[in-house]
Amino acid sequence: MTAQTKKRGAMENGDGGVGLGLAAFIANNEDVGPIVRHAFESGKPEALLHSLQNIVKMKEVEIEEICRLHYEEFILAVDELRGVLVDADELKGTLSDENLRLQEVASSLLLKLDELLEIYSVNSNVGEALATLKICLQVTSLCKVCNRDIADAKLLSALKTLELIEKDYLQNIPLKLLKKVIHKQVPMVKLYIEKKICSEFNEWLVYIRGTAKEIGQVAIDQTSLTRQKDEGMCARQREAEESSRVGFDVNAYTLDLEHMAEEAMLEFDLAPVYRAHHIHIGLGLGEKFREYYYNNRLMQLNLDLQISTSQSFVESYQPFLAQVAGFFIIEDRVLRTADGLLSESQVDTMLETAISKVTLILEEQFSLIDAANHLLLIKGYVSLFGATLKKYGYRSMSLVEILDKTRDKYLELLLSDCRKKLNYVFSKDSYERIVIKKENEYDTNIAAFQLEPVDGVPNLPYVAPFSSSVPNACRIVRSFIEELVRYLSHSGSTNIYDVVKSYLDKFLIETLNDGFLNLIHGGSLEFPQVVQIAGNIAILEQSCDMFLWHAARLCGVPRCLLEKPHSGLTARAVLKASHNAAYNGLITLVNSKIDEFMLQLTSINWTLEEAPEHANDYMNEVIIYLHEVVSSGQQIVPRDALFKVVSGALSHISDSITTVLLSDRVKRFNANAVASIDIDLKVLEGFADDTYKMTGFSDLRKETSFRDCLAEIRQLINLLLSNQPESFVNPVTREQNYGALDHKKVAIICDKFKDAPDSLFGSLSSRATVQSARKKSLDVLKRRLKDFS
């Protein structure tokens, strides 16, 4: 149905507008509800119904038209189909024939295709097998390499191989059995590697503990050598400075290549530690190994800090401190090179433990030591031990403090040892001037201590003005200085010279000087020995400057500072006072010896019947002894001091005779006894005059001579032998002739003076007349003295 037909039918129905709209809605498959609602609302449902009927009719017409049109086409299509069927039958026959021929031709090819497909399947299976075998072969090859590395102790390489197997192959192994075996063996191999490396590390712990002592000893020796080089350099610098004060010394500034060798590097094997650390890190046990290392080393340190009980500390302190030093040298190397195996806090903890323990041991052992040289040796080694630790970055302040605490004890022990040495020297000295017969003896006993100002060696044999105790004492003093400086050096004190000087003063005063005083006042020495001691003191007094210079040189103090006022030793003045005390001791000694001789005076016959012709024996002995005093004293004792000794001896003799006459031991004496004393006195006066003139004492221009020392006894004897003893009461006469006499003493002695009784014909002799007149004068004197008193 065409559009025109539709239009005409609608117009024929008289309602073309509604019909067209409705037709358009139906054609477009739109909702016709609005149109139906409108028709009913407008009251025209009939028109709507009519339009729908027309539309139905129109559709029927269109259906008929379509059927007619398609039927014709169907007939035509059937005709064409019949033609096609004929062609298809022909084609089918052709295809059947071709198929038969194709089957006949392709049957052989199909057989070959089946064979090819089978080959393709086999090839795929073989490829998969080869891939599987390749993976398994690689895994087994790596396992073999791992086993070989383990057998060759290449544990780190074996561990890397295991890591490679686990990371790249273990999850990709196609064979479940092989995968299961390898999965089971890998932890076992790792456990074996861990045990193996721990065993090697434990062996290293044993090795390194045995090596630590040698390492520490070498390090301490290097520190000692460095210290010696530094001290030698300082000494050469001081010598250069001293030389520059006088003139330029070319040799003082030469480069000493001999001391420029570099310090040898300490060698010890840490490879087992590095290997064990890396392997444990590879095993994932790094923290466990670090803890294991620290605990074992701390345990070894505690063992090292136990001192030997089978040896004394003096014998074991060096190995003990060397072991501790070696331990921390090793730990320093481990800290710096072992990639975090140790932390600084752990090393500090071990150091605090060690220093605390060492300090306690030193305090205990120092309290038990009773020898200064032992304390010095230990202190020196402890100082080197501390310096060695400091060189490797460790601090040990408590060691310095404990060393400072031992200073007083060391000085006490040193003074005691030197006192014993001096006492031994004094006891073995004969106090005779030493005779130098060889040049080397002169160098070691005199030149070495500058005891003689003479340059060069004098003619040998040479008689020194001192005894053997002087050079020996100088050796002891120098040894005291050197050991004291050695002890105080490297102890943290900035100025040890003042300390050394004060203790040197103390040593010279309390030990050397007191030793001389004990000898002088001991009363066991003879006059020549005391004379020699006085000479020795004078020599040592002059040597005080040499002692002080030696101490200053060792302490690095320029010599120019010693030239300042009040820079000397107090001991010099003390020794000078002891020198004077020695001379006073000579006077006491001589007087004491004279007293021994004068004891014979009380045993002589004081009532002789005849006047003797010679001096008494005691006086002869006194004269001989005084000659010895003068001859031995002239060589050493200054003339002024010797004058005091001799004059004191003569005065003592005069006093001794007077004292005997005054004592109760002499009840009575006569003129013959006085004549005997007069002879003794004349002999003594002769000695006094000869000695005064011949020995040069007259050059001293003293106010009194030796004879003047006998004035009291001479005037007393002259009074007793005088024909007019009563002249003593005459002031003028007494002043001129008896000025040294005391009237009380004269009165006592005169009371004891009784002239001898008259013999049978005594009254007929002229001597009796003289004696009678003298007796009367003496009686007058006695009465006058009684009246005077």
UniProtKB/TrEMBL annotation:
Residues 399-752 form the Exocyst complex subunit EXOC6/Sec15 C-terminal domain. Belongs to the SEC15 family. Pfam families: EXOC6_Sec15_N, Sec15_C. This is Exocyst complex component. Component of the exocyst complex involved in the docking of exocytic vesicles with fusion sites on the plasma membrane. GO terms for cellular component: exocyst; membrane. Transmembrane segments: none annotated. InterPro entries: EXOC6/Sec15, EXOC6/Sec15_C, EXOC6/Sec15_C_dom1, EXOC6_Sec15_N, EXOC6PINT-1/Sec15/Tip20_C_dom2.
